Amino acid sequence: MRFALAFLALVLSTPAFAAPKDMPTRKPGLWEIKMQVPGMPQPMVSQQCIDEKTDDLMQQRGQAQARQQCSKNAMRRDGDKVIVESVCGFDKTTATTTAIFQGDFKSNYRGEINTTYAPPMQGMKSSKQTMEAKWLGPCKPGQKPGDVIMPGMGSMNIKDMMKNLPDGTQSRTPR
Questions:
Q1: What is the pTM of this model?
Q2: Contact 109, 15 (CB under 8 A)
Q3: Alpha carbons 125 and 120: distance in angstroms, whole number
């Protein structure tokens, strides 16, 4: 469960996923993202091959999902920080999240993601995760934009996965 939540946070909390156009965009190429979740002995490390179109697609999907699942989904800049605040319904739980991202988004960024669950989700009342992302360079030979490599899960392509989802994913009542 914690792994699934960490992956969800990794994908959905990337600033480029749901950011308005004036927010920083990630530099195209290969990104390494380390997600530390309490209770996990090692950070979860993934690599993402992205281009501008991939981040735009993730942004559109993120906004569609937020419209259906969230009563609040706000992003703003405060100096060199990008602050994301949301209140979203998942199953019978309301997740209230504040995430703060800092960095240049061309070579690196760091995020702190704090979420509370009411009622607790799978016995978890809250979670605190940290994310560190760094640009590694161009995508590896044979990789295409949208490819994500996760230890123990192999490689998947986010763009291909999104093609198989209906626009906005499953409808849920915003909380």
A1: 0.77
A2: yes
A3: 4
Q: Are 44 and 34 in contact (CB under 8 A)?
A: yes
* Residue 142: predicted pLDDT: 93
Q: Match 């490819």 to its residue by tokens.
A: 147
Q: At 126, is the secondary structure helix, strand, or coil?
A: strand
- The pair of structure tokens assigned to 99 is 């995430």
Residue range 38-60, pLDDT digits in tens: 888 889 899 999 998 887 777 77
Q: SS3 for 160?
A: helix
Looking at residue 141, its pLDDT comes to 95
- Residue 80's contacts (CB-CB under 8 Å, 6 or more residues apart) are 102
Closest CA to 48 of 130, 143, 129, 141: 143
User: Tokens 């993730």 belong to which residue?
Assistant: 58
